[in-house]
Amino acid sequence: MNKLPEPVLKAWEAREPICVLTTVAPDGTPNSIYVGIVGRYDDSTFFVANNYFHKTKDNILAGSKASLLFLTKERKAFQIKGSIELQDSGPIFDEMKRINPEKYPGHSAAVLRVRNIFSGSEQII
User: Fold this and answer.
1) Contact assessment for residue 66 and residue 60, using Cβ atoms and an 8 Å cutoff
2) Of 85, 44, 46, nearest to 64 (Cα)?
3) Are 113 and 45 in contact (CB under 8 A)?
């Protein structure tokens, strides 16, 4: 895990609300979905609410790595890559439930541990 540098933290705070989460199936097929219930737990951990995951859940359970893409309001793109797991209890799950609207099920939290960050073709960490 790597900690987020200050410019990335500032970009995260100035992001558009919708992100793209990508996982990969065991046969190598990528799967990208729009996600709106996304949070930063600490300086090296993000989470996404599993409200209606299907392929994404299967990919995570099969050991997929993941990528979370977000845009700032100035249209600068950041891609966070790392390991991902599902949690259905504990402090990260509780934080996901806190921000997840009651109308959505919040079955689990997809927890992304930062390994690399890119902005465009520039590798930040």
Assistant:
1) yes
2) 85
3) yes
Report the SS3 class of residue 24.
strand
Distance CA 124, CA 5 (A): 8
CB 49 within 8 A of CB 104: yes
Any domain includes 1? no
Q: How many domains does the chain have?
A: 1
- Mention every residue, 6+ apart, whose C-beta is less than 8 A from residue 94: none
Domain range holding 35?
6-123
Each of the 125 residues of the chain gets a pLDDT tens digit; together they read 678 899 999 999 999 999 999 999 999 999 999 999 999 999 999 999 999 999 999 999 999 999 999 999 999 999 999 999 999 999 999 999 999 999 999 999 999 999 999 999 999 99
Residue 19 belongs to some domain of the structure: yes
Distance between CA atoms of 72 and 80, rounded to whole angstroms? Answer: 14
